[in-house]
Amino acid sequence: MRLKTIAVAAAFLISGGLASTALADYPEKRIDMIVGFAAGGGTDVMARTIAPYLEKYLGNDVSVVVKNMPGASGQIGVTAVAEADPDGYTLGTYNLPGAMARTLDRHADYNADSFTYLANIVNDPNVIVTPKNSDIDSMDKLVKAAKARAGAVTVAMSSLGGDDHFFLQKLSDVTDADYTVVPFSGSAPARSALMGGHVTMGIINVSEVVAFRDELNVLGIASEKRSPMAEDIPTFKEQGFDLVNGALRGFVAPAGLPDDVESKLLAAFQKTYDDPDFQKAMQRSGNPTELALGEQFKELNAEQLELAKRIWETHPWK
């Protein structure tokens, strides 16, 4: 009996040792990074910018491969992450308030407890833009046009129930005017429709307008102070409109991630954020960085869910 007990204990120790070794070797294969929006938008740009730095700091010659899964205002991609194996080999971009808004306005196969919250990287203020050849090249002209005929001003945006949609609700309240929403599957097609003159205006984020400044009129930025990414763009507050809003973009993994794997990922995100070359790359792409790591990101998600609930109760978007 004693020999049997010793044998069982030895087997347990060996299996435990093998498990620890397996975790210590993470990552051992390719990591998929799922983006729930089309290529070319702000979320996609963030993912493709950060991927090589995660490869560097995770080590083991790992490849981090970006996979676009657009549709349903980001819900398809987020759901794929929530339903993936919690082994550290599927990560995903995570947009707030949109990801939590999806749990309010439709059936969603995930909730706030479906994820391991890794890092929020970007806090990206909204901007209002119009085509370069548009007569509406100032906030005063925009408000005048919107008030002249209810719903005549059409607005391109990347989703319903996202930061751009919440911003439009705030704009409607502040200007006491009605606007017509034209949603797209991501900011890139929304911007294309705008630049093609198919809509009156667009609500996008400052990161998504930097490379197209010569082709668009930028009427203002929804931040407390001017962005270092575009210091010539006045805030809406400067122009007499109390509008502050933006997109939060980060990364999650499925819930239930092993502690050792989570620790390695958190360390890699922290090192990436602290890398001066990464910060320069983000600045070049117009992405304003603001880190919330691990538990702090989880708390931020809870705050955004409460915001979405309040807006849903007073101004449901469906």
In N-to-C order, the SSE pattern is HEHEHEHEHEHEHEEEHHEH
Would you count the extended β strands for me? 10
What characterizes the major β-sheet?
10 strands, mixed
Q: CATH superfamily of the largest domain, please?
A: Bordetella uptake gene, domain 1
| Helix content range | 40-55%
Task: Tell me the Rg in angstroms.
Answer: 22 Å
Given as residue ranges, the uncertain stretches (5+ residues, pLDDT < 50) are 1-15, 17-23
The CATH architecture name of the largest domain reads 3-Layer(aba) Sandwich
CATH class of the largest domain: Alpha Beta
Number of helices: 10
Number of domains: 2
Calculate the terminal CA-CA distance, rounded to whole Å.
68 Å
What form results from the Cα inertia axes? globular
For the residues shown, what is the average pLDDT?
A: 90
Give me the secondary-structure category.
alpha/beta
Assess the beta-strand content as a share of residues: 15-25%
CATH topology (level 3) name of the largest domain: D-Maltodextrin-Binding Protein, domain 2
